[in-house]
Amino acid sequence: MAEEATVARPYARAAFEYALAGKSLSAWSTFLGGAETAVRDERVARLIGNPHVRTDELVELLAGVALGVGNASGVGEHGRNFLRLLADNSRFALLPQIAQQFELLRANHESTVEVELVSAVPLTPEQQQKFAAALTKRLARTVRLHLSVDPKLIGGAVVRAGDFVIDGSLQGRVERLSSAITG
């Protein structure tokens, strides 16, 4: 996995720098996300490396999927060229890593952070705003909050932003207490 990240890094950086210069970060995010989704599909994954599938056919398949998503159409021929570069270097399997690293570069540039907030019960809009404000202050970045509900938490919430985790759930407290007792 670390090797993949190392190999993917120059591709992600090149795509990011090109997108930044062209003021098309959002379109490239969408494009790379679409390409990532396509290569994760088992039907497409079987085509990668298949000697009966021509490289240009695979590039067109991935480009068709990736460019057909949301605002990715603005990427156009440059996206196809990027996919051709990956194909020429047998790097299609790295698209998930490339997309992930691109998003990290983008978040760092925009001073944003993706935060997953899992709560035991749905949060009211006021609670969502309070969480977002507190996390923005704590992380010194604009927070993009992604909410989900998990009744197994019993009460409270779990907040994840990259490696930063706050487990304020009742389930987490019970587990920590159990570990301390059996310790």
Highlighted features:
single chain, about 180 residues, alpha+beta, Peroxidase, domain 1, 2 domains, four-stranded mixed β-sheet, 4 strands, about 15% strand
CATH architecture of the largest domain: Orthogonal Bundle
Instruction: Let me know the average pLDDT.
Output: 90
- SSE topology string: HHHHHHEHEEEH
Overall shape: it is: elongated
Number of helices: 8
CATH topology value of the largest domain: Peroxidase, domain 1
Percent helix range? 55-70%
Radius of gyration: 20 Å
Task: Describe what is shown at a glance.
With 183 residues, the chain is an alpha+beta fold. Helices cover 60% and strands 14% of the residues.
Topology:
Elements: H1 2-21, H2 25-40, H3 42-45, H4 55-67, H5 76-88, H6 95-110, E1 112-119, H7 125-139, E2 142-149, E3 157-161, E4 164-167, H8 170-182
Descriptive notes:
The chain has eight helices and four strands; from the N terminus they run H-H-H-H-H-H-E-H-E-E-E-H. It folds into two domains: 2-108, N-terminal domain of the delta subunit of the F1F0-ATP synthase (Peroxidase, domain 1), CATH 1.10.520.20; 111-182. It has 183 residues and is of the alpha+beta class. The chain has helices spanning 2-21, 25-40, 42-45, 55-67, 76-88, 95-110, 125-139, 170-182; strands spanning 112-119, 142-149, 157-161, 164-167. A four-stranded mixed beta sheet has the order 2-1-3-4.
